[in-house]
Amino acid sequence: SGMQQQIQDYFQTTNFIATLGVGLFNFGSIFGPLIGAPLSELYGRRPVYIGSSVGFVSSFLSGCSAVPNNCQLVDVSALAGLIGSAVFSLYGGSLSDMFSPDERGPFVALFTIVLQGAPTIGPVPSSLLGTTVHWRCIMGFITAWAAIITAVVICLPETEPTAIRRRLAKQQGEVSPEPSTPAQDAGSVWSKALLTPITMFRREPIVLWTAIYHAFVYGLLFLLLEAYPHVYSSHYSMSRQEAGLVFIAPWLGNLLGVLVYFRYLKPHPAVKERFRQKDTSQVSSSASLFTPIGMFWFAFSAHPDIHWFLPVLSGVPVGMGMTLLQLSLFNYYIDLYPTRSASVIAANCAVRNLVSTISPSLGVPLYSYLGIRNASLLLACISCIGVP
Length: 388
Hints:
This protein is mostly helical. Helices cover 79% and strands 0% of the residues. It has 20 helices and no strands. The protein has helices at residues 4-10, 15-18, 20-43, 45-66, 70-84, 90-98, 105-121, 123-129, 135-154, 161-171, 183-203, 205-236, 240-244, 248-265, 273-287, 290-301, 309-313, 315-336, 341-370, 372-383.
C-alpha cells in the first residue's frame, strides 16, 4: 500500500496495474496451500515448511534485485505467493500434532494475529517509509527478514506422526509397515492427496459455506487497503502517508479480538468433546456480528462534516470481527477434522485468496462509482449474511 505510488511512478503505469502486485500475490496463494497441505500429510510438515520458506526468499530476492519492468515484478509477486503460501495451511496440522484442543488455543491465536494483523498493520510502516526509502530497499528488508525466519524454520523438528514413524523405522532398519506401492498406485495416491482440499470443499457443506463467508471478510481487508486512502483523501484531504495511519484502528481491533475471544467466547475446557464443535460454531456466529457493525458505522460516519476520528474508530470492530471469525473458525476446523485439518484450512485459504486477488483492484472503482456511503452500505449488508 505504501509503496504503490512509488512503483506507479517508477514504472510509469496506472493505479490499476500497480495494485496487481498485491492481487497476483494473493492469486499465487490460492494454489500454494492446495499443494502444500496434502504434501505435508504424505511426507511430513518439515519438508514443506523448509521448501516453502527457501523458495519464498529466493523468489522475493530475485524480485527486489533487478526486475526491469512492472510486468516481471507482478510475475515475481505471483511466484512468491505460490511458493510462500504453502505454510498457511500447515499450522493447523502442526498444532493438531502437538497439542490437545485445550492447549492449542493460544497458539492458534498467535498465528491468527500474525496472519490477520500483518496485512492490517503493514500499510502503516510502508506509508511512512514510502516517501523516503526506495521501494527496492523495502523489499530487500522484507527478504532479509524472511531469510532470518527461514533459518529458524530449518531447525524445526518433524511433527507429523506418520512421517516420524517412517523415519524411526528406517533408522532402526525395520521394514516399513506400509506396503510397497507400484508406480501407477503412487500416482493415484498423489492425485488423491492433492485433490483432498477440493474434495472437502465440494462435499462438506460446513467447509463450503464457512469458506465462502470467510473469503468475503478476508477480501474486505484488501479492499479497504485501497478504499481507506481514497476515502480519507477525498473527504479529509489526507496524504497517502496520513491515510495509512488509519490502519492502526483495525490492527487494534485484531488485538482486541483475541482478548475478547479468550475472555468471553472461548469454549470452556470442561465442555465435552462431542459438544465442543457445536460450542465453537456458535462462537463463529457471534464473531460475525462485529464486521457489519463496523461497516455500518463507517458508512454513516465518513462525511466531511464529521470529524475524521469517528470513521477511523469504525475500523476497530471491523478488525475485531476479522480476527474473531478466523480464530473461532480455524479452531472449529481443527476440532472437527483433526486428521485432515491441513487440507480443510487449505481449502479455506484457497477460496479467500481467490477473493482477495480481485479485492485490491475493486476498492477505488467501487467507492468512486457508488459513492462512499452506498459502497460501505453494500459491503455492510453483504457481511450481514454471516449474522446468526
